[in-house]
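STRUCTURE REQUEST FORM
Protein name: 3-methyladenine DNA glycosylase
Source organism: Bacillus thermotolerans
Requested output: structure tokens
Priority: standard
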Amino acid sequence: MRNNQDKQQEQENLSVEQKKKREEGQDIEPQRQVDKPTHSDS
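Status: completed
Returned output:
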């Protein structure tokens, strides 16, 4: 059950992304497909 860890990681990534986007003055939109880090989920 590593789902919780994955979710936490995603939240952290989203936070960083949001801060970056905020600085750039862009709309904050969670881009799941684009933001997905390439890691095998086996």
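Reviewer notes: The helical segments are 3-24, 32-35. The CA atoms of residues 2 and 41 lie 10 Å apart.
Form closed.
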